[in-house]
Every structure is written in C-alpha cells, then in structure tokens.
Amino acid sequence: MSGAASGAGQPGGPEPLPPIELVLATHNEHKRREFDRLLHAGAEVSVAVRALPDEAQLPPEDADSFAGNALGKARAAAAQAGAAAIADDSGICAQALGGAPGVRSARFAGEHASDEENLRKLLREAPTGSVLEYVCVIAYVDPAAGVERCFEGRCRGRLAATPRGSGGFGYDPAFEPDDGPPGTTMAELSDAAKDAISHRGRAARALAAWLAGEQADGANA
Predict the structure, then answer these.
(1) What tens digit of pLDDT does each residue of 64-118 get?
(2) Contact of 48 with 19, CB cutoff 8 Å
(3) pTM for this one?
(4) What kind of architecture, by CATH, is found in domain 18-214?
(5) Which residues are catalytic?
(6) Which residue, among 22, 165, 15, has the nearest Cα to 4 in the 3D structure?
(7) H/E/C letters for each residue in 133-167?
(8) Where are the domains of the chain?
C-alpha cells in the first residue's frame, strides 16, 4: 500500500489524493461498471470512471490493430468530453487460423453476427484443443497533457470441444484459459476469478499501475 493510501484517515498522515477522473469511450453502463471494478482491483489509485453522454459519437472500429481501434475511440471520446479518456479494443486470435479473427472478432461470422454465430464459426474452423489467445489493448488519451499511452493484456488458452458455462460473453464458453482450473472455460469462472487472469483485467491493472505512478510523481513534484 502506498504512503498516501496508508496514511489516509490517520492523525498527521498525508491527505488522500483525489480520484483520477476518466471518460470511458462507451455508452454502455454495464461496461462502465466493469471498468470501474477492474481499475480498482488491488490498485493503489482511486479512479472515477464515467461513460460518454448519449449524444457523443465514436468512430468505426476499422483499424488493422487493437491499438489502432482503441486509440481512435479514446481520441474521439477525449475530444468530445474535453477530458482524459480511455477506450479498449479486444478480440481472440486462433493460432490454427493464422491469428484470425483478431480485430474482426465481433464480426467473424458477418457484420451483424451474434456472439453465438461467431462462436459456432470458430468451433467449425479451428480444431478442438488448438491454441487461442485473447488480446486487449486499453488506450489512454489526455489532450491537455499531450499524452497517449496503450496498455496490452493477453490470456492464452485452448479451444474447448463444446461450449460450457453461462457467464462471460463472446467466445468465453469455448475458451479454456491456461491459467484457470484445468478443463474450465472462461464462462464457468466467477467474475473475480476471470478478472484475475483475463486479458482485459491484465490490461486494466497495467493502466492502473501507470496512473498510480503518474499521480505519485505529480504529488512529489
């Protein structure tokens, strides 16, 4: 625990640092709550995450990399909100398919495909037990400070023979993480267990650690 956190509330201790306010490039309240949870998981920094207002517009995810898509959304959110913003892009890469679907994970079976249709296509085209890797990139953009950073998280696993579990979303029911209990899919894990090993959880912790360091440097300057 950092000095600022451990001294909070103690007589003569340093005042707690104010929360870092961030705009998340989404209109989805469920996603905002998820990021709020991820950024506070074991972090030595307080972050206040708010979603974009309904009228804000985000660019299409048409870049050829996760970082490109995340940066595009974070820049747009920061410009419209007039504040530091974060955005993420993530997907799954199948070794047997040359890294596909990658940035097209949400559109693997077509532009308007459902999670179930995308998952069925992966199960048809990649062999059971083949290597998969979830990738997440979170972009941070602060126009006032002229700062842009990207934080990547990865989770390696294998393709299950059949979907199992009711938790998670996307490809989770057929993704057996190497860091999880043997034979268990992401969709069978609790939120806490998934956050500890997921690509998004790892990227969020990298961002939180960097934010804590930046805040501490600013306080000591």
Answers:
(1) 999 999 999 999 999 999 999 999 999 999 999 999 999 999 999 999 999 999 9
(2) yes
(3) 0.89
(4) Alpha-Beta Complex (3.90)
(5) 89
(6) 15
(7) EEEEEEEEEECCCCEEEEEEEEEEEEECCCCCCCC
(8) 18-214
